Amino acid sequence: MIVETLFHWAQSIPPWLATIVLSALPITECRLTIPVAILSWHLSPILAYVLAMIGNAIPIAPIFFGFLWFRSFAARSAPWSTKWLDRLLEHAHKKLGKHFEKYGIVALFILSAIPLPGGGIWSGALAAVALKLSWKQSWPALVGGMLVMGLIVLGVTMTTT
């Protein structure tokens, strides 16, 4: 229902802008936006990929830098809410922690490159925060994973048309 509402709303703006906006959202990212841009909005595969990558890259820094700021703001304003935020970080740490210990930054890359629910740039950036990784250490793995995820989705979309 939420995805249907988003795509209905997206019909009211130009397809190139809808591709960017929908790719920035955690519920759609590029795994839904690239196929829709190519198959429904008839954008060229290259343009759909580039626009989706631009949109998918938008939330990386805000998630990475904004989550901890938001948590400290919540601790001051609504202390009860930090339990939920801490559980979210703890879940992300559990999800990637053991893999990170074994595979290092490659685990973050793989998490960001998985075009399935639970993978992607939102999960990857949150995991980087949960693991207390530096921006310098995280952003290449996040962006690289995002680019690979886009290529996987593009490849699957092109083979099904």
How does this model look, in words?
The chain contains nine helices and no strands. The chain is mostly helical and 161 residues long. It folds into two domains: 2-57 and 156-160, no CATH class; 60-154, no CATH class. Helix 3 (29-39) packs antiparallel against helix 4. The longest helix has 26 residues, at 135-160. The protein is globular. The model has no long low-confidence stretch (mean pLDDT 90).
Briefly characterize the structure:
The protein has 161 residues and is mainly α.
Helix proportion = over 70%
The structural domain count equals 2
Number of strands: 0
The helix/strand class is mainly alpha
Query: Biggest β-sheet: count, sense, barrel?
Result: none
Radius of gyration, in Å, reads 16 Å
Distance from N terminus to C terminus (CA atoms, Å) equals 25 Å
The proportion of strand residues reads under 5%
Mean pLDDT: 90
Low-pLDDT windows of residues: none
**Overall 3D form:** globular
Order of helices and strands: HHHHHHHHH
Determine the number of helices (DSSP H or I, runs of at least 4 residues). Answer: 9
Note the topology.
Blueprint: H1 2-10, H2 15-23, H3 29-39, H4 45-57, H5 60-77, H6 82-103, H7 105-113, H8 121-130, H9 135-160
Helix pairs in contact: 2-3, 2-4, 3-4, 3-9, 4-9, 5-8, 6-7, 6-8, 7-8, 7-9, 8-9
